[in-house]
UniProtKB/TrEMBL annotation:
GO terms for molecular function: histidinol-phosphate transaminase activity; pyridoxal phosphate binding. This is histidinol-phosphate transaminase. Pfam families: Aminotran_1_2. Its cofactor is pyridoxal 5'-phosphate. Pathway: Amino-acid biosynthesis; L-histidine biosynthesis; L-histidine from 5-phospho-alpha-D-ribose 1-diphosphate: step 7/9. Keywords: Amino-acid biosynthesis, Aminotransferase, Histidine biosynthesis, Pyridoxal phosphate, Transferase. It comes from the Bacteria. It comes from Pseudoalteromonas prydzensis. Homodimer. Its EC number is 2.6.1.9. InterPro entries: Aminotrans_II_pyridoxalP_BS (IPR001917), Aminotransferase_I/II_large (IPR004839), HisP_aminotrans (IPR005861), PyrdxlP-dep_Trfase (IPR015424), PyrdxlP-dep_Trfase_major (IPR015421), PyrdxlP-dep_Trfase_small (IPR015422). Belongs to the class-II pyridoxal-phosphate-dependent aminotransferase family. Histidinol-phosphate aminotransferase subfamily.
Length: 361
């Protein structure tokens, strides 16, 4: 318990989000944070850093609006999609009164943000979202003000069909905002809910440049919604959330040529993901491979010590506890050379398993 009398009484109950980088692991091949393996070389020249930046830089907003096929009034630039999550909770939820609905397992920042703002969590399941009827989902959501749907879902990769998102939004019109987190949507762009925004005042889409755009270090995201939904958020956001340097790099990343390059890289990564899934499904060291989208594959290990062996080889992946079991692993789709290190690890595990079987027989 904290001895600082200035801190709120519930501060000790809060749990910080445990990011991939917070685990302080060491290694040579990093496939634990769903980062792009593509390195960008950026040349910028800025001579007005003595001036405050445009709070919502027009060059970036206009380009992202064009990319998302929306109007500039429907786009808000944020410090990563995480700030979008925080702004939605802070703007639309009353502390100690409202709740947000989550379909677990899912991205951990929804819960961390709600807890920080003393907003209750309505714990639902991915199984309900994927297999339940719309009536069952709406009943379970109850009076929750925000309904977070990570699509594709992190860490499972599961995808909620657009028709189901639309049906949920229809049933919860004037009752809740449906927040569709599309951090990984570039890997399955035809599934984006952004095309629903013009028809649904209660659909909000979160986007990022961290994944497919290979700019995780830039911390740039976007909140997409009808102008009337974004208007109150614009009252809450910090006065200068986007630095001049970030805006310049983001605008460059959203040029037509850069978007074409991004899509080409996504095509390569999707092909590599398919190859990785084949390796995993053929390996006796893997009990289950989850089918899904995104730049990662999540799997259940036959022996959780296999993760330790990977670390000893300098191969860093993301260990998870899912469904109450601590033998799950998420592998980011890296370069072909990086995934070859995964293949070497898998082959070594298979050889060890074969050797042990021969010894037993």
């Amino acid at each position: 318990m904290s001895n600082n009398p200035l801190l709120p009484a519930n501060i000790d109950a809060l749990a910080a989000y445990s990011s991939a980088k917070s685990e302080k692991l060491t290694g040579t091949t990093w496939l634990n944070a769903n980062e792009s393996p593509y390195v960008k070389s950026i040349d910028i020249s800025i001579n007005d850093l003595n001036r405050y930046p445009d709070p919502q830089p027009a060059s970036v907003i206009n380009r992202y609006a064009s990319y998302a096929q929306l109007t500039p009034e429907q786009v808000l630039m944020t410090r990563g999609a995480d700030e979008g999550i925080e702004l939605l909770v802070r703007t639309y939820c009353q502390p100690a009164q409202d709740s947000v609905a989550l379909f677990l397992p899912t991205y951990g920042m929804y819960k961390v943000t709600a807890d920080t703002h003393n907003v209750a969590i309505n714990d639902l399941s991915q199984a309900l979202l994927l297999d339940g009827t719309v009536d069952e989902i709406v009943t379970a959501v109850g009076n929750s003000k925000l309904v977070f749907i990570c699509n594709p879902n992190n860490p499972t990769g599961s995808l909620t069909p657009l028709e189901k998102v639309k049906a949920i939004a229809t049933a919860l019109a004037d009752k809740a905002l449906i927040v569709v987190d599309e951090a990984y949507i570039e890997f399955c762009p035809e599934q984006s809910a952004s095309k629903l925004i013009n028809d649904f005042a209660n659909i909000v889409v979160l986007r990022t440049l961290s994944k497919a755009f290979a700019l995780a270090g830039l911390r740039t995201g976007f909140t997409l919604a009808q102008a009337s939904v974004l208007a109150p958020i614009r009252k809450v956001i910090a006065p200068y959330p986007v630095s001049t340097v970030v805006a310049s790099i983001a605008a460059s990343a959203l040029s037509p040529d850069a978007i074409t390059s991004m899509r080409r890289q996504v095509s390569i990564l999707n092909a590599l993901r398919a190859k990785l899934k084949q390796w995993l499904e053929a390996s006796p060291a893997v009990l289950q491979v989850l089918s899904g989208e995104g730049n990662f594959v999540t799997l259940k290990l036959a022996d959780k010590n296999s993760f330790t062996i990977a670390l000893e080889q300098g191969l860093v992946m993301r260990a998870f506890t899912l469904y109450g079991e601590n033998d799950w692993l998420r592998i980011s789709i890296g370069s072909e050379q990086e995934l070859e290190q995964v293949k070497i690890w898998l082959d070594g595990l298979s050889q060890s398993a074969t050797f042990e079987e021969q010894e037993v027989s």
